[in-house]
């Protein structure tokens, strides 16, 4: 009866994930002994630019920025998790 | 212009008719009726957040090797929930649409009384105790 919002997000561009991985490697080199939070902040700053290329035009405009921020944070957390999981297994 | 204008007849109360009472009806004049329509509706923004969360989980999982996707789904969902927690907390799930109208005392005018009683009747409210003065009724009404 009351219409639900209906929209999809475009697939994340592979460059975004690559940018996260590159920034993570850089963070490891530059802040090797530092806390994870500091490294995350560094990575986030680097990846934000790459996230600007995300095409979110089909989204409600008020959601564009929150989504862009969320994409960056979520993808960083997921990559972080995958990398550490990989390292632990190794 | 007074806050109170009869929605059926357009008349306004005299200043002297306003009543100061502590009963939650403000200074509603004596004999006047306050009608409040409240309609609860889904907040479109809240729905959009839910849709965005679901879509973000899916596109993020799309970046994860297929064999690890289902294992990673709870982690991704938690991360997405966390990212939207503040926005969600500041967005009501429902919006309450409210409209208020007033009706002058039906005892003041026979035509107004008829309309007033008809409205109450249609809403299933009892009209017991109300008396409509028949003096102004037309011949048709009497038949």
Number of strands of chain A: 0
| Oligomeric state of the chains present here | heterodimer
Low-confidence segments of chain B, ≥5 residues, pLDDT <50?
none
Q: In percent, how helical is the residue content of chain A?
A: 55-70%
What order do the strands of the largest sheet of chain B run in, or round the barrel if closed? 1-2
Q: Mean of the pLDDT scores of chain A?
A: 82
Number of helices of chain A: 3
How big a fraction of the residues of chain B is strand? 5-15%
Kindly report how far apart the N and C termini of chain B lie.
40 Å
Q: What is the 3D form of chain A?
A: elongated
Content-based structural category of chain A: mainly alpha
- Please indicate the count of domains of chain B: 2
Q: Strand-and-helix sequence of chain A, N→C? A: HHH
Distance between the termini of chain A: 53 Å
Rounded to an integer in angstroms, the radius of gyration calculated over CA atoms of chain B is 28 Å
Let me know the number of strands of chain B.
Answer: 2
Strand and helix layout:
The complex is a heterodimer of chains A (90) and B (143).
Chain A: H1 14-30, H2 36-51, H3 61-89
Chain B: E1 33-42, H1 44-61, H2 66-89, E2 94-103, H3 110-122, H4 139-142
Antiparallel strand pairs in B: 1-2
Helix pairs in contact in B: 1-2
Could you characterize the architecture of this molecule?
The complex is a heterodimer of chains A (90) and B (143). Chain A has one domain (14-89). The longest helix of chain A is centred in the last third of the chain and has 29 residues, at 61-89. The model of chain A has no long low-confidence stretch (mean pLDDT 82). Helices cover 69% and strands 0% of the residues of chain A. Chain A is an all-alpha fold and 90 residues long. Chain B folds into two domains: 15-41 and 95-135, no CATH class; 44-91, no CATH class. Helix content of chain B is 41%, strand content 14%. Chain B has helices spanning 44-61, 66-89, 110-122, 139-142, and strands at residues 33-42, 94-103. In chain B, helix 1 packs antiparallel against helix 2. The relative contact order of chain B is 0.17. The model of chain B has no long low-confidence stretch (mean pLDDT 89). Classes of the chains: A mainly alpha (90), B alpha+beta (143). Chain A binds chain B through residues 2, 4-12, 14, 17, 59-60, 62-63, 66-67, 69-71, 73-75, 77-78, 81-82, and chain B through 41-42, 44-45, 47-52, 55-56, 58-60, 62-64, 68, 72, 75-76, 79-80, 83-84, 87.
